[in-house]
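Could you join me in thinking about how sequence relates to backbone shape in a protein? Would you write everything just below, so we can both look at the same thing?
***
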Amino acid sequence: MDIKAKINEIVEKIKGDKNLAENFKNDPIKTVEGIIGMDIPDDQVKPLIDGIKAKLNLEKAGDVIGGIGDKIGGLFGKK
């Protein structure tokens, strides 16, 4: 299994489904296992969950920073 590809796949599913995002927030292990369709030992699924959380947080931070950049650019007459 390509972990990076699987993380990207799961992140896209979570971003596209508010219910799935809420489930991931409340019970990430069960949610990820449901998406993958198999029971994974906790010691193996936790690094996957950490990668998903990191990617979700980076994308949220990028959205915030991009929005701030647009506002700052507007101060200088740039958009």
